[in-house]
Amino acid sequence: MPSPSSIPPAAGHPRPATRTELFLAFTVLALQGFGGVLAVVQRELVERKRWLTHEEFVEDWAVAQILPGPNVVNLGIMLGARWFGPGGAAAAMAGLLAVPLGLVLVLAAFHARFADDPAVAGALRGMAAVSAGLIAATGLKLSGALAKNPIPLPWSLALAAGAFVLLAWLRVPLAWVLPVLGGLGCALAWRRLR
Amino acid sequence: MTATMSAPQLILGWHDWLALFVHFLMLSLMQFGGAISTSADMHRYLVEDKGWLNDAQFGDAIALAQAAPGPNVLFVALMGWHLGMNTGSLAAAFLGVALTMVGILVPSTLLTYQVAQWGHRNRERRGVRAFRAGMAPVVIGMLLATSWLLASAGAHARGWPVWLLAGVSCLAVWRTRLHLLWLLGIGALLGAFQLV
Question: B89 — contact with chain A (CB < 8 Å)?
Answer without folding.
Answer: no
